[in-house]
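Recall the central idea of this unit: under ordinary conditions, the amino acid sequence of a chain determines the structure it adopts. In this exercise we apply that idea directly, starting from the sequence alone.
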Amino acid sequence: MAAKLQQLQSKACQASKFISKHGSVYYKQLLEQNKQYIQEPPTIEKCNLLSKQLLYTRLASIPVRCEAFRKELDYVKQLWKNKQDLKVEDAGIAALFGLECYALFCVGEIVGRGFTFTGYYV
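Accordingly, the structure predicted from this sequence is:
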């Protein structure tokens, strides 16, 4: 156990040295590549304005998203009405989607319990 801890500390030290040596170059390169997204001057007021714009833009997009959801739901209803014309590919996609939703629910439950399968903390 002590050997693994020593190895982990050594790797962490190497990573820290690498970051201290190359981190500022990477940071400057990242800012240069994405300078079109940087707002000038970078003040708290500008950040607050941008966060409010993001919030209200997202809120304004809710009706559009709801309409898209209704269209998808209508499409599914039409498929269900004409299920005798359903192709194997469509049924497979629906089955995979249901399986994915179920799996995400189960994984979410496990994560919510602290990665335990019984639900009890040890």
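The mean pLDDT is 87.
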